[in-house]
Amino acid sequence: MKRSLHLQLSLMMFLEFFMKGSWFVTLGTYLKNNLGASPLEISSIFSTQSLGAVAAPFFIGFIADRFFNAERVMGVLHLLGAGLLLMMYRADNAASLYPYVLFYFIAYMSTLALTSSVCFRNLRNPKKQYPLIRLVGTAGWMVAGFAISYGFHWDSKGAVAAGALQNTFLLGAACSVALGLLCFLLPATPPLKKDQPFYWGDALGLQALKLLKQKSFLVFFLTAIIICIPISFYYQHANPFLVATGLPNPTAKMALGQLSEILCLLLIPFFFARLGYKKMMLIGIGAWALRYLLFAYGNGQDLAFMLILGIVLHGVCYDFMFVVGQIYTDSIAGDQYRSSAQGLVTVAMYGIGMLIGFWVAGLISEALKAYEGTTYWRYVWLSPAAMAVACMLIFIVLFKEQPVQDPVPSEEL
Fold it and tell me: What CA–CA distance (Å, rounded) separates 171 from 159?
């Protein structure tokens, strides 16, 4: 692979994740502290990510795969995203912010698929070369967190009160413009399905519904949806909680979760040989319950180590459930349903599961708003902890591991 191509694709991936990390991590804090959004308004805005995950396959399948080069579609979407981020910066209440975030995520979730497509189409040996490029994306997310905390100091209590987090939208917009322009310099990646018909069911992976006749895959499928309900609490509440509890530089510390993702991903082959699918996914589900218990009883002062440990568990939580789940799905589906099955599971988790989860998080937060301070946050975190424990017990009883093909670790973080 030419060094220039490697640098181009790495920079593309870095900016793709830096851009989202620059504003999305602190979004809950900004909505609550600066726009005065209610819990249900916050959950509604966060749910746009799930709606974008459902809409993206239709956009990719109907437009990008048939009419235009992938890199050009990406360039247009990122320039459009820059404009939407500027409108978010100007919005002065949750209601006016909502449509901009919704359209942004429809565009952004589409570009996520297109970045992978551009990489795989232009790399000579994707299985070997893509993981290193994808890791640069994770580094981009981490750098965004460090920049907010240590570079700009926008997430300190005083800065939050002064409205400094509004600047995160400007940072994201600048990054989006840079990435949009870069996309037009990427190698030409023409559409592959120009003359093929488009089927709505294929975009959602509905061909793979036949796999649900297998009891074990059905149990995994339902578990993946259920566990996304407590997971949504983390994305919606973690940063506001860490700011409220007084943990210094909370956004940078949350980036430690991405570092643990990298380490856990490297350890997956080692654990596979010793534990298998069921035990690894159980560890992942159990880690979510432990994380929320640590959040429920930790604080930003003498028990800050509990919060840090809860953040660092992110790698175990995510990789041992989602990445292992992707590998399990790939092994069960086989060549006939491989792409369709991955699409179905992705829509189920990021679309259905997290959409339900964001609304449940909002309803529970609304019900608990009579409480204050430590008591409020303790009940907020005990709720998803209980859900994760219930999910774990269901999985223990009902999931029966079947002999499948040798796993190949996924590159997706």
Answer: 16
Domain housing 221? 202-404
H-helix segments, 91-214: 94-122, 126-146, 157-161, 167-183, 200-203
Q: Are 31 and 42 in contact (CB under 8 A)?
A: yes
Q: Which residue has the tokens 């930790």?
A: 298
CB atoms within 10 A of CB 23: 26
Indicate the residue type of 365.
Answer: S
Residue where a domain stops, chosen among 188, 219, 244: 188
State whether 149 and 243 are in the same domain: no
Same structural domain for residues 161 and 218? no
Environment class of residue 206 by beta-carbon count within 10 Å: exposed (0-12), middle (13-18) or buried (19+)? middle
Element (H, E) at 280: helix 256-297
Q: Which of 163, 188, 213 is the last residue of a domain?
A: 188
Phi, psi of 299 (to 5 degrees): -150, 175
Number of domains within the chain: 2
Q: What does the pLDDT read at residue 347?
A: 81
Tens-place pLDDT, residues 115-170 = 888 888 888 887 788 888 988 999 999 999 999 999 999 999 899 999 999 999 99
Residue entry with tokens 């490297």: 266
CA distances from 220 to 182, 229, 388, 395 (A): 40, 15, 14, 8
Return all residues near 341 (Cβ < 8 A) that are at least 6 apart: 205, 208, 211, 329, 330, 332, 333
Give the predicted TM-score (pTM) of the model: 0.88
Task: Please check whether residue 175 is in contact with residue 20, taking contact to mean a CB–CB distance below 8 angstroms.
Answer: no
44 lies in the same domain as 158: yes
Contact 155, 243 (CB under 8 A): yes
Q: Show the CA angle centred on residue 93, arms to residues 171 and 362, nearest 5°.
A: 95
* CATH code of the domain in which 349 resides: 1.20.1250.20
Question: Based on the domain organization, do 210 and 174 belong to the same domain?
Answer: no
Task: Give the whole-angstrom CA distance, residue 197 versus residue 331.
Answer: 28
Domain membership flag for residue 303: yes
SS3 content of the chain, % helix, strand, coil (to 5): 80, 0, 20
Give SS3 for 38. coil
Is position 194 within any domain? Answer: no
Q: Is there a single domain that holds both residue 144 and residue 282?
A: no
Tell me: do 136 and 246 sit in the same domain: no
